[in-house]
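Summary for the steering committee. One of the milestones for this cycle was to obtain a three-dimensional model of the protein with beta-D-glucopyranose bound, which we needed before selecting residues for the alanine scan. The sequence and ligand used are listed below.
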Amino acid sequence: MNRYIDQLMSRMTLEEKLGQLNLPVTGNIVTGAARESDVAEDIRQGRVGGLFNLKGAGAIREVQRIAVEESRLGIPLLFGMDVIHGYETVFPIPLALSCSWDMEAIERSAQIAAAEATADGICWTFSPMVDVCHDGRWGRISEGSGEDPYLGSRIAEAMVHGYQGADLSDAATMMACVKHFALYGAVEAGREYNNVYPDSYHMFNEYMQPYKAAIDAGAGSVMAAFNTVQGIPATGNRWLLTDLLREQWGFNGFVVSDYCGLEQLCDHGVCASKQEAAIQCLEAGLDMDMVSAGLLSLAEAVRNGQCKKKYVDQACRRMLEAKYKLGLFDDPYRYCDTTRRSQVMRCPEYRAEARRIAAESMVLLKNDNQLLPLRKQGTIALIGPLANTRPNMSGTWAVAAVPEHYKTLREGLQDALEGSNAKLLYAKGSNLMYDAQAEAIATMFGREMRDNRSDAAMRDEAMRIARQADVIIAAMGESSEMSGECSSRVDIEMPDAQHDLLVELTKLGKPIVLVHFAGRPTVLNWETEHVPAILEAWFGGSETADAVADILFGDVNPSGHLTVQLPRHVGQYPFSYRQMRTSRLNPQGDFAKFTTCYADISSKPLYPFGYGLSYTTFEYSPMTLSSDQLPMANGQSVTASVTVTNTGDRRGTEVVQLYIGDRVAKGVRPYKELRGFERVTLESGESKEVTFTIDADLLGYYAPITDVCANAVPQWTLEPGEVEIHIGPNASETDMRLLTVQ
Ligand code: BGC
């Protein structure tokens, strides 16, 4: 590779090298008029390194042909896309996917996404998004794996392995891009594109681990975040992109900016011109510039010495290396095989996997008197504005989705009832919310579902239908565009019109199941108090409807567990189960003067991290530790074990969770932090011992830098002392033993 690239670079002009760093969005070639577009002319002139969001192997082949046959050096282009949770077969939104705690399923979802996307010409995805987030107001919490850096790291690895496989040049794998580096999930007040403030200690202990895990797993590229890190925009932050990423972590792929991230250095007020921003970013370690076209115009600055040429060479080399690793120099049309599409796209095998994984992602929050699973008999009323909408099913950030091929929930339930005596009635019951303008914001990009009937007329119809039913299924919550990019919200309760409808429905005194759609943690206080069964369905992707039916009628036993705790009030944010040890602790969470609490609500979550019910029940034996002492010397370990028994009457899967709580360390540590988990599937009556191996490395943390003037990075450390070892079904219900590290 090095020889090939040396030789190629020796033939490149400065302008051609800068061209490799340029990533325009497809713009006017989306229609397929590739030959006449401005982008096509730029490609001929060697001014483009890659393109993104062009769909279709035929269209991409044509654009690639221009690069290969009509540009001077014939360097192939990279074709990227936001393939975030599947392609045409859409998997659950990442927040939902994380609730499966199933690393094999998550890896498989990424593998299938790669198989489909590459059959459509894409060789590079802007995923995984691994931003840890403690704030449900942020709309992009939907795109990440929740609030925990340990679980987030395991998921990051699984995603990278899934996308990239064992061989990046395989025509069915694509390059991953870890984003948004770094700390984007910490946006202040949950407001999109806002600043972030974690200090170096919290940065490393709360946020950095998943990025590092993805890089250790071999991710080929990294996307710089929009936000600042320690006061300097990530896109132009040399400490972040070079000292930490490359020198400390050994990353050897390329770094791309986020959309116009380069020119936004001017918005941040750290540069006076785009040219200044381009020089700062390039010298900081940015290799590819998404949309700003700032690096592209650096030739003059390099010639007059304002910008060092070595940085251009370095970035160009990294871009060429990526293309080499993808096999594009061998065969620029490797990902443009137009015959593959018909074999893989939405094929029955992939859709069956997506259906299974969607059901695994859903979390049963409540099930009084075993209302669920429902029997396929009698009259069932399906009510709510999310019951019959097709475009909402796939969830936010499903760029390649083809909603016309996906079922509505109503269709899924109807299909499931086929051949039974049960009758399914339907009424919409309400709009998403009363205010039409607010609903328009919540249903952008073709998700519109507004009904012109009056609120009263819709409600009357729903009540008439509900009165005829034996059981009511309420399909309510957020529309898909209420989360995702630029969808921050301060009101995260059930939207008004739906809440009022639900209140009326409960007055009928009939059994009600709430199938709740959401792309974020929401506040479900009223629902928890008044509705006997609640399924958190999130957005399950293209197969959502069948997956919900599988759960409601008991063909699948729910096994999802929350990866974000659900709050009682939006005012609790930022909020995480990883509460750091604090002065004046108040373990009960209720008001007690001069303790850490709220005067008006409990400071506890409504549903804790790790929580999720099943149609069966599990019993945990007391935990045993193989020793209560752990010597710190290399290679020593102890084991923590519990026996889990399925005490119910059907097969089910439990997620057994290991938490630690370091009692005394130089840096303040959380009371509990996840450090292990295992999914166990048990037949009725079956028991299994689950064992976690605990060594010094597992117990470590990034120790604080005590000399604040030192230009150092916190290091993974373990200090002697007592550590609590907890095992349980969620973060709030654990059995604990003490381990002394010495
Ligand atoms: C988002 C990125 C995304 C990019 C390209 C940006 O606005 O922040 O996550 O990859 O657009 O679509």
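Key point for the committee: Residues 82, 126, 179, 258-259, 485 surround beta-D-glucopyranose (CB under 6 Å).
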